[in-house]
């Protein structure tokens, strides 16, 4: 298919990883069984170029370089996909990309807390370090909920003085459970009551956010009082002015109330504003919550992660939406969800281990084309076609144009623009609506032009100076930007365009690059 902008099933799994390869086989068996039952004809296996681009974006957050794409596509090794997956999982960029993914899960694009939470480099570094060290998921979540490690504290800043919001956020992300309806009333079709909701909120009511410094030097600490209760005054419809609530004890979701010792009668809370180092509480509710959430026998924790990781790479959860694992919302493939959950527990919450099995499966490596028109196919009969996130788009632009290799520096305004105007990467429903801001950036932005204009060692400079035919240079252009060779028709059109006026070669090269990086093929993952 010609690029409109310029026109103006099985990969071998290879050896290794022992019995872990059995999970990828089970994945495909369960998915195929559903196809047979539903009389579905799946898409064929993705070709090497499509797989290459997809797995780079999913694992390291950017497209491959020209050299990486050329080497992979020319490699005759039947095990090259599995070997590439292993290399990317060990690539330093894997940790950075996973930190981007989970940062958005935990905060979203527009978190509460204003400027204190809008920019959070210390948190992203803390999170990236966890992935770089392959710290087990249960361990870093426990450390996050305790809020004592430098960089992690900002997670609670978004819930400052809002224990109810903290209860909703923690339950949704880490337990796959929606509690927001139970905040106002007992839902007639859900198990959770208002008392369940306020029992979870009670774990957060004693938290205090302390600040020190200002501006870029501002730091946070999470203190915890020894007293203070959340008050429950009944359903929203029964509220009356002056009506007092009764204190609710902290209660583990679906479990027992937390047992805690009584506070001494003569106890007095310290003034945290006047002490350099706030004392630990007599009894820490958040420590008990962190231990319970991440406990191996917690019935929600591992299952919620298994569903979320599947959705990260296959577009939708086995339970959909991904954070609503209620009794009424049954999984599309129950046995598969239980197998993924069991794998996490058996491998001590090694996220990388489960990701390896998912992306090595036939299911993940299907093509993104086929008769199914839903954005997120229910039975996973084709790969989801998704827009690049703002982070992926910026990284891919830098890779495609050779901007970093040429010594280019990205200004803070470019990053700010992309993350602000390219919006949420996904709402979990497969919906995508491009905005005017995106269109203006891709077609008129000086930020983008500075990446494309000829600069020593970047793509435009190489295309202008390479001792090669224009046909070969067009091949390089396509491999650099779209991670695939051009079709014969595309090659002919681009050569015709690039050689139409030798005196205007720099402008023609810039225009050709711009056409490819602004086309829909570059904007989506395939």
Characterization of this structure:
With 526 residues, the chain is mostly helical. The chain is 47% helix and 3% strand. The protein has 24 helices and 4 strands. The strands form 2 sheets. A two-stranded antiparallel sheet has the order 1-2. A two-stranded antiparallel ribbon has the order 3-4. Helix 13 (301-314) packs across helix 14. The longest helix is centred in the N-terminal third of the chain and has 18 residues, at 21-38. It is globular. 39% of the residues are buried.
**Biggest sheet statistics:** 2 strands, antiparallel
Number of continuous helical runs: 24
The H/E string reads: HHHHHHHHHHHEEEEHHHHHHHHHHHHH
The gross shape turns out to be globular
Radius of gyration: 26 Å
Strand content: under 5%
Q: Which structural class best describes the helix and strand composition?
A: mainly alpha
| Largest sheet strand order | 1-2
Distance between the termini: 14 Å
pLDDT < 50 stretches: 1-18
What is the total tally of β strands?
4
Mean pLDDT: 89
Helical proportion, percent range? 40-55%
């Amino acid at each position: 298919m010609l690029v409109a902008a310029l026109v103006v099933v099985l990969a071998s799994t290879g050896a290794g990883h022992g019995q872990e390869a059995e999970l990828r086989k089970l994945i495909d068996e369960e998915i195929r069984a559903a196809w047979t039952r539903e009389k579905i004809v799946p898409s064929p296996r993705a070709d090497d170029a499509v797989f290459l681009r997809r797995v780079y974006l999913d694992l390291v957050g950017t497209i491959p370089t020209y050299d990486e794409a050329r080497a992979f596509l020319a490699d005759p090794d039947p095990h090259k996909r599995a070997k590439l997956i292993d290399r990317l999982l060990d690539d330093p960029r894997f940790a950075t990309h996973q930190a981007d993914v989970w940062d958005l899960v935990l905060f979203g694009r527009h978190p509460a807390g204003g400027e204190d939470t809008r920019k959070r480099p210390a948190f992203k570094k803390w999170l990236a370090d966890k992935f770089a060290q392959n710290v087990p998921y249960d361990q870093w979540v426990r450390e996050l909920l305790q809020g004592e490690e430098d960089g992690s504290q900002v997670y609670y800043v978004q819930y400052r003085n809002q224990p109810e919001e903290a209860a909703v956020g923690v339950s949704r992300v880490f337990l796959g459970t929606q509690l927001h309806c139970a905040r106002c009333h007992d839902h007639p079709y859900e198990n959770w009551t208002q008392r369940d909701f306020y029992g979870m909120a009670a774990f957060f009511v004693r938290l205090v956010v302390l600040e020190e410094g200002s501006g870029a030097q501002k730091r946070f600490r999470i203190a915890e009082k020894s007293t203070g209760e959340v008050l429950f005054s009944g359903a929203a419809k029964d509220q009356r002015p002056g009506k007092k609530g009764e204190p609710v004890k902290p209660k583990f979701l679906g479990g027992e109330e937390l047992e805690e010792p009584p506070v001494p009668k003569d106890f007095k809370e310290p003034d945290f504003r006047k002490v350099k180092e706030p004392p630990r509480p007599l009894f820490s509710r958040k420590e008990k919550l962190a231990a319970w959430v991440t406990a191996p026998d917690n019935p929600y924790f591992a299952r919620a992660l298994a569903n979320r990781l599947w959705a990260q790479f296959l577009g939708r959860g086995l339970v959909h939406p991904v954070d609503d694992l209620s009794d009424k919302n049954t999984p599309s493939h129950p046995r598969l969800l239980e197998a993924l959950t069991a794998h996490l527990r058996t491998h001590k919450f090694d996220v990388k281990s489960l990701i390896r099995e998912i992306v090595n499966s036939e299911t993940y490596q299907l093509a993104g084309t086929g008769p199914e028109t839903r954005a997120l196919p229910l039975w996973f009969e084709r790969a989801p076609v998704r827009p690049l996130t703002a982070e992926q788009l910026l990284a891919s632009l830098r890779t495609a144009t050779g901007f970093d290799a040429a010594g280019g520096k990205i200004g803070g305004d470019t990053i700010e623009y992309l993350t602000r105007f390219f919006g949420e990467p996904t709402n979990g429903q497969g919906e995508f609506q491009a905005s005017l801001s995106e269109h203006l950036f891709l077609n008129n932005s000086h930020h983008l032009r500075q990446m494309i204009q000829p600069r020593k060692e970047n793509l435009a400079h190489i295309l202008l100076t390479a001792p090669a035919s224009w046909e070969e240079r067009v091949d390089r252009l396509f491999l650099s930007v779209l991670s695939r060779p051009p079709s014969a028709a595309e090659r002919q059109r681009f050569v015709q365009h690039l050689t139409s006026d030798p005196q205007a070669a720099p402008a023609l090269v810039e225009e050709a690059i711009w056409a490819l990086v602004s086309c829909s093929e570059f904007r989506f993952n395939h």
